[in-house]
Design brief:
Number of strands: 9
Number of domains: 4
Structural class: mainly alpha
Shape: globular
Strand order of the largest sheet: 7-9-8
Number of helices: 16
Strand content: 5-15%
Helix content: 40-55%
């Protein structure tokens, strides 16, 4: 993000504000930029460029392409650029739930982009632009959109692993060459000649597939596997065979399809369009049905889009704003600690906590913070209340059955919800019905 350290104000101007797609109003102080061309000089604030870049960055988090419609006020004065209507979008296969973005995280990322090495910022912003373009095109040209997703990852893998070296004997492409060199080595006395040939072959190779594969395996967080796709929950049958253990196999299929599309124009398989919109071609449907018995295939676009989203976000957290990655690591460690505490509770206390969790989950989606449950409605006995309070899982006005209690905060609620519902179906994950943890 280019800028002069002034912050951005973002407001929803759609009515109602919780519908998607939304219209947003972005307000910011913009710097001046001067560019020289062969035929003249251009000077002024690059307002459209900054707005597009900010929308592109937000797209990485909300998984919906944000498209700037034009400036409406410059220098405090209104600007009339013509009327506009909603940007035309093909309806998705499932209703998209509203997505919230942490302003604290966004601030850290903007600061990180302004302070990191220029090539780091260029790599992630370039990848974000490709991701944005892929989402914009997905309903109209799935093959090109899929290619753009792969390119977004390559943008980061080529930069992040630019100095990585590979052993000649470990490169699959050189297996046949290695066998031939071994035969040649038997008939010559100078072994250094063979090593020089290997060195030259390695030097001429860019290792784009290997870097792509290694980057995905390094940056894809466990969260990707532990949680289902909230935007497209009905596609489990298409992705059931894709696991952490089999990931490399499917990455190979994806990259082969990308290479075929790049070098011969061969489109991606028809089945990859399943899940993009509510309409699916007959060919895609039959291809999708055939995948049930296959152990190798190109994953659906929507699955690979989610993978790309996780990778771009993870790169932002680890490289651009590492304090966010450190904070998350501490939260994960705290969650593991809380899960052990819950696991070690006496049976009656664990039963009581499950009842309190179910009572609290009834308010998910309501404008309520910190619902207070009558102890008589969830606690087996007073000893259970005292046990839960002593380990810091709940708070309350009284530890008797006549009192009321509540789950202490969102961090604790997330761990409790995962214990009883599992990571995939945790009703209390990211829920705002519990109070935030006090620092």
């Amino acid at each position: 993000m280019l800028g002069d350290h002034h912050w951005y104000t973002l407001a929803v101007i759609s009515r109602p504000v919780y519908t998607i797609p939304q219209e947003l109003c972005l307000s910011f102080d913009c710097f001046d930029r001067t560019e020289k061309f062969a035929s003249g000089i251009s000077a002024g604030p690059p307002i459209d460029d900054v707005a597009l870049e900010f929308g592109t960055l937000l797209t990485v988090f909300v998984r919906e392409p944000l498209l700037p419609l034009g400036a409406r006020r410059i220098g405090g004065k209104p600007v009339k650029l013509g009327d506009y209507t909603h940007v035309s979008r093909t309806p998705p296969s499932n209703p998209i739930p509203p997505a919230g973005i942490s302003s604290i995280e966004m601030r850290s990322i903007l600061l990180g982009l302004s302070n990191t090495e220029e090539d780091n910022a260029a790599a992630i912003l370039g990848a974000a632009r490709l991701y944005h373009a892929a989402l914009s095109l997905s309903a109209y040209d799935t093959s090109t959109a899929y290619f753009l997703l792969v390119s977004a990852i390559e943008c980061l893998s080529g930069h992040h692993l630019k100095d990585k070296t590979f052993n000649f004997d470990d490169v699959e492409k050189f297996k046949s060459v290695g066998a031939a060199l071994k035969q040649i080595s038997l008939s010559i006395s100078d072994g250094s000649l063979i090593e020089n040939v290997k060195r030259e072959l390695l030097r001429a190779e860019f290792f784009v597939w290997q870097k792509f594969r290694d980057f995905v395996e390094e940056f894809l967080p466990d969260e990707f596997w532990e949680q289902k796709d909230e935007l497209r929950p009905g596609l489990d049958a298409l992705t059931a065979t894709i696991t952490k253990a089999t990931l490399r196999r499917f990455l190979r299929e994806t990259y082969s399809a990308r290479s075929a599309f790049t070098h011969t124009g061969t489109p991606f398989p028809a089945h990859v369009e399943i899940g993009i919109s509510e309409r699916v071609s007959t060919k895609a449907m039959f291809e999708g049905m055939d995948l049930v018995n296959k152990s190798r295939f190109v994953p659906a676009f929507v699955w690979f889009e989610r993978l790309t989203h996780f990778l771009l976000r993870e790169y932002l957290f680890r490289i651009i704003a590492p304090e966010l990655a450190e904070k998350r690591a501490k939260q994960m460690e705290e969650k593991r600690r809380l899960l052990e505490i819950i696991k070690g509770l006496p049976p009656s206390a664990q039963e009581s906590l499950e009842c309190l969790t179910k009572w609290t989950a009834k308010f998910v989606g309501y404008a309520v913070v910190g619902p207070m449950a009558p102890n008589s409605e969830w606690a087996v006995d007073e000893a259970s209340i005292q046990s839960l309070a002593s380990v810091g899982l709940i708070e309350g006005a009284s530890q008797s059955l006549e009192g009321t209690s509540w789950i202490k905060n969102r961090e604790i609620g997330n761990a409790i919800g995962e214990f009883f519902y599992g990571a995939d179906h945790n009703l209390l994950r990211d829920s705002t019905i519990l109070p935030p943890k006090s620092d």
